[in-house]
Amino acid sequence: MVAEGRQRIDKWLFFSRAVKSRSLAARLVVAGRVRINRDKAAQASDMVRPGDVLTITLERRIFIWKVLATGARRGPAEEARMLYEDMSPPPPPKGEAIPDAIPALREAGSGRPTKKQRRETDRLLGED
Q: According to the UniProt entry, which residue ranges have a biased composition of type Basic and acidic residues (predicted)?
């Protein structure tokens, strides 16, 4: 029994073209990668309605979508875009490096010892 204006989250994700199949949508929900109004969706049968805000984590992307309508079918992309409003922040430009991702600098030769250096150390310690 479905309440008027509400729809299962797995069907809605499928109709909105977020995923390729309903079974993938169900797996995504069960894995905890979908939030409805900041609460984790526990089951594929959780209901969404217009006005809900979904946070969807797909691979390396995070989408924040506001549900505008429930879907009737998996139609063309233009029809799917009418089901949600994309509120995701724009991705960072590809040319910019993230400041936290700057690799640490190390002095030359401060890595693992070479075979020659290990032999010298062994001789020094008397471990022939």
A: 119-128
